[in-house]
Specification:
This protein is α+β, with helices and mostly antiparallel strands. The chain has 17 helices and 25 strands. The protein is elongated.
């Protein structure tokens, strides 16, 4: 009795602590759908030494029902090792909630034995433990919006698995999406080991990462992607890309590619698709650059749209370079050089520009600069130096889109000037940040910048509409809508030489009475045809039809 009285008793702590891991934020579409979300994962751990042999079957039966794991698999795991066994590493949060209830029920049914600790001599019971083990990134719409949305990779810290962005929006806004602060509570406990919250307890709140809301609606993106998939097959192309932007504000409504992947199941064959072609694929734009060149001539008052230009019957030599046209012309007006896409005509007109004027004009249109702050790893492309542009041959070939590199979004941004009174807007993908209290912070628009005067822009707009109505873009005509644009076809360079492969494009705009949109299509190496009128133009027209169908455009048709 004396020993019992004097021996210090092991009393459980009056205090307890609890931690909770904060989660990564979601990526939400313009129409409110969660494209990328975070799912918490839990692991189920049991010490097999404490399972009553007489009630092992009961444990297996109940755990199988609550977890959905096959009974044979559970039995195999608990028989293979005596001691601590992880029954599952990937238990979803809802299942974990029910398994915690099961743990308490198993204790009530005395499924676990009270065993003496050999070091302390005290009896203890170790039951079923459900422990938060990490988080998993879920993409609820499969390959939708890839590669723009990007993908993450897994990291581990103190046994907890979390994700960080590697590409796309996941990488660009990784700091904003990442969990900000884990929760922690400490204080006196009640008989059920729950923390008693009072003045003496301490609580640090859990702060999750911000949700980011983008400008792209899921409904439109799905339809455009499906159309691009069909056109890739029909044109036998390596890739088909499309982008759509509000011409006055810059909101991007669609950025889509036919080459996509599942962010959680990336295969070796997906590697070429991981880069976002809309900003990371630079190419020689070809004839879609002719309106840019022509607008610089108009801006400097070096040409009148009605001036006559000698077409030289489709063949014109500058130095050692023979410039050819697909269609032969004797004489045509300066604006018809654009309408009928004459290389011979624009090569002659471009000679009126000095190398400095041409170089500065291309820079003013945003070439060799990043098109948007909302995307990462953009290839800015290149333009020839002032010295090179003083050379007649370089000046001529650059005038119709050879000798410089650009991506789809740079071209889209440049063409927005023709549909926005000479001012270029920045493509904007990020609409707002949303915190865990559902408070939304709208992101400001980048200030539009002047590329050309309003007068020049209006003239170019009329020329591009004429190009659709009477020139290379006739297949995009849509009654009741104002459609303008320019086709482009350019050879591809391999190992420093032009080969018999092509990229085709159509960049332009489409407007109704209340909406103004800038749109662009790039078809990479179509085998069906080398002509943009037969490849990029049909994609552009199908996109217009989808926009009409979904109410983004309302044709003004008088019956």
């Amino acid at each position: 009795m004396l020993f019992t009285v004097l021996d210090p008793r092991h009393l459980p702590s009056k205090y307890t602590a609890d931690t909770s891991k904060a989660s990564r934020g979601s990526i939400i579409s313009a129409d409110g759908f969660h494209i990328a979300t975070t799912k918490k994962l839990f692991k189920a751990v049991v010490n097999t030494r404490y399972i009553d042999p007489q009630k092992k079957d009961l444990f297996v039966e109940l755990f199988s029902i609550y977890s959905g794991i096959n009974k044979k698999e559970i039995t195999k795991k608990i028989n293979a090792h005596k001691g601590v066994v992880v029954l599952s590493y990937n238990i979803p949060q809802i299942q974990a909630h029910y398994l915690k209830k099961l743990s308490a029920e198993l204790r009530r049914l005395n499924v676990f034995l009270a065993l003496k600790n050999p070091r302390t001599g005290l009896l203890s019971v170790h039951g079923l433990n459900i422990i938060e083990s990490g988080e998993s990134r879920e993409y609820n719409y499969g390959n939708l919006l890839t590669p723009i949305i990007g993908y993450p990779h897994k990291l581990e810290e103190d046994g907890y698995t979390f994700v960080k962005g590697v590409k796309g929006l996941e990488k660009r806004f990784d700091d904003e999406l990442s969990a900000r602060q884990d929760g922690y509570s400490r204080g006196k406990r009640d008989v059920n080991s729950y923390i008693i919250l009072n003045k003496k307890s301490f609580t640090k709140p859990q702060i999750n990462g911000l949700d980011i809301k983008i400008t792209i609606p899921v409904a439109l993106q799905i339809k455009i992607e499906k159309m691009l998939d069909q056109m890739k097959v029909e044109l036998d192309a390596k890739q088909v890309m499309f982008a759509l932007m509000d011409s006055t504000k810059g909101d991007v409504l669609t950025m889509a590619s036919s080459n996509r992947y599942l962010p959680k199941e990336i295969k070796k064959s997906d590697y070429p698709s991981l880069n976002s072609g809309m900003i990371e694929y630079s190419f020689e734009p070809g004839s879609v650059l002719k309106p840019i060149t022509f607008s610089l001539l108009l801006e400097k008052k070096l040409v009148n749209p009605y001036d006559l230009v000698n077409g030289h019957n489709g063949r014109f030599k500058i130095g050692r370079k023979m410039i050819r046209d697909e269609h032969k012309f004797d004489w045509l007006s300066a604006e018809d050089v654009i309408v009928h896409s004459s290389n011979v005509g624009i090569a002659q007109l471009a000679q009126k520009l000095s190398g400095y004027e041409f170089y500065e004009g291309l820079k003013k249109f945003g070439f060799a600069k990043r098109s948007t702050p909302d995307l990462i790893y953009e290839k800015a492309g290149s333009i020839p130096s002032v010295k090179r542009l003083e050379n007649q041959i370089y000046k001529a070939t650059s005038a119709y889109g050879y000798g410089l590199q650009a991506n789809l979004m740079q071209l889209l941004r440049a063409y927005s000037a023709f549909n926005n009174n000479g001012r270029m807007v920045y493509p904007k993908l990020l609409h707002s940040f949303i915190n865990e209290y559902n408070q939304e912070t709208l992101l400001p628009y980048e200030k539009s910048v002047p590329a050309i005067t309003s007068t020049t822009a209006q003239r170019m707009k009329r020329i591009l509409i004429k190009t659709v109505n009477k020139g290379t873009g006739v297949k995009t005509i849509t009654p009741g809508l104002e459609v303008g644009g320019k086709t482009g076809t350019a050879h591809i360079v391999e190992d420093g030489r032009y080969v018999n492969k092509y990229n085709t494009s159509f960049i332009g705009f489409v407007n109704d009475k209340t909406h103004k949109y800038t749109m662009g299509v790039v078809v990479v190496q179509p085998k069906k045809s080398q002509f943009a009128a037969q490849t990029a133009v049909p994609v552009f027209k199908k996109a217009i039809d989808i926009m009409v169908e979904d109410g983004y455009l309302q044709p003004d048709i008088i019956e």
